């Protein structure tokens, strides 16, 4: 499909620079297959769901994955993208033209990395030096990797260290937050429990590739970056049992959705999964694992707007986003939520 079909006019002031406080006070647009859109707030979620529905969350934890360093006199910026092994990460590099294989980058605080090789997409493999765990090095020298549309407008501060983590964050490895879950509070979870809504978790370590623009003119020519994920056998069993009983599986966030769909066969059975996924969902895709999605509002021509258009239909999502823009909803990572229920 032509990428320009997914374009729309988004006023820059609609991109949220701070989250709602409290988190569950954020707005939530309910979009069904037909009928009027419903303007709600996140804490209304229990009333929008049915007893037995299962919400699936991503328990990945964002690491301080942005680094500023030097190679000689040259300033080098690195955003870690994907872990390769205990000491090596694939990273997007700023000022990469000043970098050569075997160069050492000094990130300060006694943190250095060897630039091993450049990849076809322009990223580099960095091998961190020394014996301390890389997680310790990043805590010392790294910063939280705020999305570029926020970082370009304000400096990161101490509040972001908490604001950019979900309450489910447990498994370290993401360089971007699964932001749909940022709307959840202990109070909202208690209300969901009381309403009989179940919840499960999986792990998908979100990579910086989620922020990369689609440069191709046709979706068929866009290459997704892979991300590592895991679904346990027991989790898959419970989700399959819920669907067999006629209950809905609703992904909280596009990351949860993409991993669930990657783990599900043509027969609709969700299987345990551990490995990389580069699934790219566009209109025409037949969903196998999920019956709904809670997600934030996405940017024009992004792979995520393509995904929600695949779920609800392009015209329906164009109308929903036009409504959201007119009604003052806040977009993207720190923005408001939408609840998409296709059936």
From TrEMBL:
Pfam families: Queuosine_synth (PF02547). It is found in: Cytoplasm. Pathway: tRNA modification; tRNA-queuosine biosynthesis. The keyword Kinase does not apply. One of its GO terms (molecular function) is S-adenosylmethionine:tRNA ribosyltransferase-isomerase activity. It is an enzyme of class 2 (transferase). It catalyses: 7-aminomethyl-7-carbaguanosine(34) in tRNA + S-adenosyl-L-methionine = epoxyqueuosine(34) in tRNA + adenine + L-methionine + 2 H(+). One of its GO terms (cellular component) is cytoplasm. Keywords: Cytoplasm, Glycosyltransferase, Queuosine biosynthesis, S-adenosyl-L-methionine, Transferase. One of its GO terms (biological process) is tRNA queuosine(34) biosynthetic process. Its EC number is 2.4.99.17. The keyword Glycoprotein does not apply. It comes from the Bacteria. Transfers and isomerizes the ribose moiety from AdoMet to the 7-aminomethyl group of 7-deazaguanine (preQ1-tRNA) to give epoxyqueuosine (oQ-tRNA). Belongs to the QueA family. Monomer. This is S-adenosylmethionine:tRNA ribosyltransferase-isomerase. It comes from Croceibacterium atlanticum.
């Amino acid at each position: 499909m032509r990428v320009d079909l997914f374009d729309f006019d988004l006023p820059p002031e609609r991109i949220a620079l701070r989250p709602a406080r409290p988190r569950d006070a954020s707005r939530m647009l309910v979009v069904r297959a037909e009928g009027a859109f419903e303007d709600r707030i996140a804490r209304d979620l229990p009333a929008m769901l049915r007893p037995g529905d299962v919400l699936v969350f991503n328990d990945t934890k964002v690491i301080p994955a942005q680094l500023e360093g030097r190679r000689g006199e040259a300033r080098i910026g690195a955003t870690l993208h994907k872990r390769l092994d205990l000491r090596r990460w694939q990273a997007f590099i700023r000022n990469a033209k000043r970098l050569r294989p075997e160069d050492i980058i000094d990130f300060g605080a006694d943190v250095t990395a060897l630039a091993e090789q450049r990849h076809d997409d322009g990223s580099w493999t960095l091998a961190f030096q020394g014996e301390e765990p890389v997680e310790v090095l990043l805590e010392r020298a790294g910063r939280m990797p705020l999305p570029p549309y926020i970082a370009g407008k304000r400096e990161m501060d101490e509040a972001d260290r908490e604001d950019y983590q979900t309450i489910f964050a447990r498994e370290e490895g993401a360089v971007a937050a699964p932001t749909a879950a940022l709307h959840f509070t202990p109070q909202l979870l208690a209300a969901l429990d009381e309403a009989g809504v179940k919840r499960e978790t999986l792990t998908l370590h979100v990579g910086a590739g989620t922020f990369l623009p689609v440069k191709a003119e046709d979706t068929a020519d866009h290459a997704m970056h892979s991300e590592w994920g895991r679904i346990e056998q027991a989790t898959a069993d419970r989700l399959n049992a819920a669907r067999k009983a006629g209950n809905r599986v609703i992904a909280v966030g596009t990351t949860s959705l993409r991993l669930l769909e990657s783990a599900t066969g043509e027969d609709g059975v969700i299987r345990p999964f551990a490995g990389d996924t580069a699934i790219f969902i566009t209109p025409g895709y037949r969903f196998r694992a999920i019956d709904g999605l809670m997600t934030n509002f996405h940017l024009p021509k992004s792979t995520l707007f393509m995904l929600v258009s695949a779920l609800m239909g392009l015209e329906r999502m164009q109308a929903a986003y036009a409504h959201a823009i007119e009604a003052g909803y806040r977009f993207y990572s720190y923005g408001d939520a939408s609840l998409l229920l296709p059936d």
